Amino acid sequence: GESVGLHLPTLSVQEGDNSIINCAYSNSASDYFIWYKQESGKGPQFIIDIRSNMDKRQGQRVTVLLNKTVKHLSLQIAATQPGDSAVYFCAEIFTGTASKLTFGTGTRLQVTL
Amino acid sequence: DGGITQSPKYLFRKEGQNVTLSCEQNLNHDAMYWYRQDPGQGLRLIYYSQIVNDFQKGDIAEGYSVSREKKESFPLTVTSAQKNPTAFYLCASSRLTSSYNEQFFGPGTRLTVL
């Protein structure tokens, strides 16, 4: 497989448990925050995004929380499944910079049976 | 199928050689992007293009070049001036409006310098 994520922080959870992946962002002026999932050897896939004027958004089995006071973003995955095993990246975007994404370093999620 | 394709999936290059990575999209997106991914790091932007025949440098453009002659295509050339080219390269595209638009990623090309 690909070597992406060799030195990333790793979160191990049991199948069926909830997962919480955290991210600190840098630009207080960012307009949107996005979570991506990247499986080994593949490109990132969009999971969910949140606008800066919101503090919570829910999708199917996922919830993103935004705390602008401490510039913190989290992704909660309910009832984690083996197929959720991947590297998760947060990204921020300030639309004043021509839609340039700035990515965090990523967290590897390992789901154990 | 609609989407972004990158080729080849794996590419090997000798030191001192230029090599071109292909990226094609049939999503009718205006904007296209090239990122580099190294172990333990997030994606870093190399170049991006918002319109045909125009492109801008990203955060790590040195040693790379691009062209945008067609809306569907945004090839990346890794030149011999790039000191450490071994990495995973990802292409993305998005619509271009005044606000944020989701970027869709291709499957990536792993480049290894021998």
Write the layout of secondary structure elements.
The complex is a heterodimer of chains A (113) and B (114).
Chain A: E1 10-14, E2 19-24, E3 32-38, E4 45-51, E5 56-58, E6 62-67, E7 72-77, E8 86-93, E9 101-103, E10 107-112
Parallel strand pairs in A: 1-10
Antiparallel strand pairs in A: 2-7, 3-4, 3-8, 5-6, 6-7, 8-9, 8-10
Chain B: E1 4-7, E2 10-13, E3 19-25, E4 31-37, E5 43-51, E6 54-57, E7 64-66, E8 76-78, E9 87-94, E10 104-105, E11 109-113
Parallel strand pairs in B: 2-11
Antiparallel strand pairs in B: 1-3, 3-8, 4-5, 4-9, 5-6, 7-8, 9-10, 9-11
Question: Can you put this structure into words, describing what you see?
Answer:
The complex is a heterodimer of chains A (113) and B (114). Chain A is mainly beta and 113 residues long. Chain A has strands spanning 10-14, 19-24, 32-38, 45-51, 56-58, 62-67, 72-77, 86-93, 101-103, 107-112. Chain A has no helices and ten strands. In chain A, the strands form two sheets. In chain A, strands 1, 3, 4, 8, 9 and 10 form a six-stranded mixed sheet that branches. In chain A, a hairpin with a 4-residue loop joins strand 6 (62-67) and strand 7 (72-77). Chain B is mostly beta strands. Helix content of chain B is 0%, strand content 49%. Chain B is globular, with a radius of gyration of 13 Å. Chain B starts with a strand and ends with a strand. The chains are: A mainly beta (113), B mainly beta (114). At the A-B interface, strand 3, strand 4, strand 8 and strand 9 of A face strand 4, strand 5, strand 9 and strand 10 of B.
